[in-house]
Amino acid sequence: MLTRPDPSDRNGAVQLLKDFIAEHAFAPGDRLPAERELIGRLGVTRSNLRKALDALEREGAIWRHVGKGTFVAEQGDGREDGLDLSLLAEIGHQITPVKMMRARQCIEAVIAREAAINASRQAVKKITEIKDRAKAAETWQDYEAQDDLFHHAIAEATDNILLLTLFEQLNKVRRAVAVNTVIRETVRPPESHTSFAEHDRICAAIAARDPKAAHDAMWQHISSVSARLFGEV
Known about the structure:
InterPro entries: GntR_C (IPR011711), TF_FadR/GntR_C (IPR008920), Tscrpt_reg_HTH_GntR (IPR000524), WH-like_DNA-bd_sf (IPR036388), WH_DNA-bd_sf (IPR036390). The chain has ten helices and two strands. The chain is mainly alpha-helical. Strands 1-2 form a two-stranded antiparallel sheet. It starts with 9 loop residues before the first helix and ends with a helix. It folds into two domains: about 60 residues, Winged helix-like DNA-binding domain superfamily/Winged helix DNA-binding domain (Arc Repressor Mutant, subunit A, Orthogonal Bundle), CATH 1.10.10; about 150 residues, GntR ligand-binding domain-like (Four Helix Bundle (Hemerythrin (Met), subunit A), Up-down Bundle).
């Protein structure tokens, strides 16, 4: 008979959390329940739960965003590849949101260009499906999770492990930058949400194998997001 991990032990709490994620078939991009609910369902203390969440984040199994929640990561999303994760976190605490968006603009525009050159049919299909899921999202949290997967899928479509790794490390810094000052006036993104049309243009350019259009569409998209959130371009 299998013995249930000890919830009062840190390692036991880590295993309980891993088992919970597996048993409920959480997929990459899915948001985990709030801490209060996890404490009740796992039977762990708040302290041990947070230690378990820290451990899974270091392993790359989950990622957390201030004000948005905890999400299941893409397989391999958190691999360290010899990089110091504490350094990435420190960068996240030092950089301003506007400078972070400028870095995204420079790097992701080039990534979109390379995706237009190298994306397979399957990669284009994946990008399109995620784009459509983002547009159909019922909540801002769901939209933001799909938006994250959309950008990750474009990086994967470059078929360039170095560009994908650069994107993933940039994404870790982005997640460490608190942008939870944004006030949402609706439960879900409205139909007029500008990112929908911007995502359409990026996807269309990649599907059309048009590197310049893909680069420009991504540049404009991130510029638009930055202006909407921070009043900066």
